[in-house]
TrEMBL record:
A Pfam family annotated for this UniProt entry: DUF1611
Gene name in the database record: dgcN
Stretches assigned to the D-glutamate N-acetyltransferase-like C-terminal domain: 143-340
Organism the protein comes from: Luteimonas notoginsengisoli
Span of the signal peptide: none
D-glutamate N-acetyltransferase-like N-terminal domain mapped to chain residues: 62-138
Gene3D superfamilies for this protein: NAD(P)-binding Rossmann-like Domain, P-loop containing nucleotide triphosphate hydrolases
InterPro entries named in the record: DgcN-like (IPR011669), DgcN-like_C (IPR035086), DgcN-like_N (IPR035402), P-loop_NTPase (IPR027417)
Protein name (database record): N-acetyltransferase DgcN
Length: 350
């Protein structure tokens, strides 16, 4: 049988390590290729190229390579970097995975459907001595216990899904490390797991174990550094509030950053639910977090201003949010997170 691993084992030195070929298949838009896009943005040094199907409608602006060319360029692993309804592979994707295995690459997937559920994929891995990794296969977990543990933690929370929680925590990690502060991104989604090399796929964890999963990815640390926990969902999203609450309790965050996309008309996928106002949303997250971290505070707002027509318009949006909440507000992609990091460090100087 081929080796099939859990996310906890997925370190860059493992057998499904970079360099990567990013598989886009027939992704219809940018969002459908969000896993590949996240890797290309945060770990470009690992990505040698992309593979696109004939009906693909997006690009990462990487070289288009077939599987043989990718191996010649040094690719060790093909990342199935697409997301779709149900998280499944169609017949063409299965065929492409088999071809990549036959070319000599390992395969890693962020889909809900397991690679090992396809006999042809398993057979191809076996005959080529290659390895399969499913990022959405959680490790063994215990239920959360709520006991205080050493170390400092920041959790990104959101007004909705897909508003930039992963980008925000990664940007804060980069900013703090540039200042000489120990900081580690703790991944809770498939894209983050590929970027970090480890983590736990929260959306694949049984509900009773969500807070325990957050405790598992952010254990006690004694070095004075920060664990930066990737948030998921929103307390105000009827579909995903449960995972958001579990993370709030398990992370035991000292600090929260609120992530928001200005101009979004309704909760993602639910046109009958409006996006909550920022004050209400922030207070609800702080109140929930106080169960396991009574002294938690908010240190900033990360605004996804990709809808803004210009940098000046984005700056005005952030200024309005700052006036409303009294917290620094920045777009991590357009502006960085220096002022949010300033606030974090000033609030926890001792």
């Amino acid at each position: 049988m081929p080796s099939i691993a859990s996310p906890a084992q997925a370190a860059p030195a493992s057998r499904w390590a970079p360099p990567y070929l990013l598989y886009l298949g027939n992704a219809p838009d940018h969002l459908a290729a969000k896993t590949a896009r996240g890797l290309a943005h945060w770990r470009p040094q690992w990505c040698v190229g992309q593979f696109r199907g004939s009906d693909c409608r997006t690009t990462l602006d990487l070289p288009d390579l077939d599987f043989g060319q990718a191996v010649e360029a040094g690719a060790n692993t093909m990342i199935v970097g697409v997301a779709n309804a149900g998280g499944v592979m169609d017949a063409e994707a299965v065929e492409h995975v088999v071809q990549a295995l036959d070319a000599g690459m390992n395969i890693a997937s962020g889909l809900h459907e397991r690679l090992a559920s396809h006999p042809r994929i398993v057979a191809a891995a076996e005959r080529n001595g290659r390895f399969l990794f499913d990022a959405r296969q959680p490790p063994p977990l215990a239920v959360g216990n709520g006991r205080r543990r050493a170390g400092r933690r920041l959790l990104a929370v959101g007004t909705d899904c897909s508003v930039g929680k992963m980008y925000t925590t990664l940007a804060i990690e980069r900013e703090l490390r540039a200042r000489g502060v120990r900081a580690d991104f703790r991944a809770t989604g498939q894209t983050g797991i590929f970027i970090a090399g480890a983590g736990v796929p929260i959306d694949a964890v049984v509900a009773d174990f969500i807070s325990g999963a957050a405790e598992w990815i952010s254990p006690a640390r004694e070095d004075g550094g920060w664990d930066l926990v990737e948030g998921q969902g929103s307390l105000f999203h009827p579909s995903y509030a449960g995972v958001s609450l579990g993370l709030l309790h398990g992370a035991q965050a000292d600090a929260l950053v609120l992530c928001h996309e200005p101009g979004r008309a309704h909760m993602r996928g639910l046109p009958h639910y409006p996006v909550p106002d920022l004050v209400t949303c922030l207070e609800a997250n702080l109140q929930a977090a106080r169960l396991t971290s009574p002294e938690v505070i908010a240190v900033g707002v990360a605004a996804n201003t990709s809808r803004a027509e210009s940098a000046d318009a984005a700056a005005r949006i952030c200024a309005e949010i700052e006036d409303a909440l009294g917290l620094p507000c920045q777009d991590p992609v357009r502006m960085g997170v220096a002022r949010i990091a300033d606030r974090l460090q000033s609030c926890f100087a001792n």
